[in-house]
UniProtKB/TrEMBL annotation:
Top-level division of the source organism's lineage: Bacteria
Pfam families: HEAT_2 (PF13646), MerR_1 (PF13411)
Organism of origin: Streptomyces solicathayae
UniProt protein name: MerR family DNA-binding transcriptional regulator
Keyword DNA-binding: yes
């Protein structure tokens, strides 16, 4: 079979077949009387093998090793190819995301494109100060797509920069809350925490609904931050989680302040007081937890907490009894 026939049947150009020959990958079995290359069926089969291996991303050098080296271990090369392919996909995915962000900024000219690119690079800088300046510029100078701000805030470890990014995101509007909420599903605990803390600083109704959903999140840290944010917004759905936080000693002072603010509504004061008392008398609260719950009753107005404190003044736990007695004295003085 002549080189032209082989090229037509294999889809490999005659030029590439000559290149393979120069590299020693495939050699024609013979020559015709006129000196033309002549390929056998085995030669053609080897060409197909070469093309198959190249389709996996192997270099021509590796193809030669795979076909001719008896000690060649394909598993090692395949593992290496998998790693390189993943790196390439990650790089291409990052490029695609960047291009989408530039497109979303709706640049009017190349100067706008360069400004957005510069700002995106600054958001990914190793310098915290540079990232902070970029966050401020995203609002004051160069409009940046919400997706870029969300990615930056979910990956930001510096608390000062994170605060600037959350502020910038709050000013940007759009689909920010929904995009941030996707971070609640991250496998990384720190990303989930950043997501809920960011939602807590977004003012719109969408963020509030997402925070309500977060009260049922399997991550207790997410539930706690959601409860604090909702309590500050006057959402009573947060009450059970806030009470648990006091009992567990996790952000208990902030949780008690949130409950006190919610209890300013007379319709909620008795419900909150009852919840505190129920949690206080539940098995497993522990001495310190019961004392913290007793202290939380101090800022809840109404008769229900007063009656509960009167009972607690005779509690078997001396620390609880003394705390309740002291609080009753303060309430009496105020009354």
């Amino acid at each position: 079979m002549l080189i032209g026939d082989v090229a037509r049947r294999s889809g490999v150009s005659a030029r590439m077949l000559r290149h393979y020959e120069a590299l020693g990958l495939v050699r024609p079995t013979g020559r015709t009387d006129s000196g033309y290359r002549e390929y056998s069926a085995d030669d053609v089969r080897r060409i197909f093998h070469i093309e198959s291996l190249r389709s996996l991303g192997l270099s021509l050098r590796d193809v030669g090793r795979a076909l001719d080296d008896p000690g060649f271990k394909p598993s090692e090369l395949v593992d290496d190819l998998i790693g390189r392919t993943r790196e390439r996909i990650a790089a291409e995915t990052e490029l695609l995301a960047r291009l989408n962000r530039i497109g979303a900024a709706d640049p009017a000219g190349w100067e706008d494109v360069l400004q957005v690119v510069t700002l995106l690079q600054a958001l990914g800088s190793k310098s915290a100060l540079t990232r902070q300046r970029a966050a401020l510029s995203a609002v004051e100078e160069v409009p940046v797509p919400v997706e870029a701000l969300v990615e930056a805030v979910l990956n930001e470890s510096d608390p000062i920069v994170a605060g600037a990014l959350r502020w910038a995101l709050a000013q940007s509007g759009g689909d920010g809350p929904a995009l941030v909420a996707e971070g609640l599903g991250s496998a990384r605990a720190e990303v989930r925490e950043r997501a809920v803390r960011t939602l807590a600083e977004l003012p719109d109704d969408t963020a509030g609904a997402l925070l309500r959903d977060a009260l049922a999140h399997p991550d207790v840290t997410v539930r706690r931050y959601a409860a604090l944010a909702l309590g500050a917004r006057g959402v009573t759905d947060a009450v059970p989680t806030l009470i648990d936080m006091i009992a567990d000693g996790r952000h208990d002072t902030d949780a008690a302040d949130a409950l006190a603010a919610l209890a300013a509504d007379p319709a909620q004061a008795d419900r909150i007081a009852t919840g505190l008392v129920d949690r206080l008398t539940r098995a497993g609260a522990g001495s310190l937890g019961r004392r913290r719950l007793t202290e939380a009753l101090a800022d809840i107005p109404g008769d229900v907490p007063s009656h509960a404190l009167a009972d607690l003044a005779h509690d078997e736990d001396r620390a609880v009894a003394l705390t309740a007695t002291y609080i009753l004295g303060l309430r009496g003085a105020r009354g």
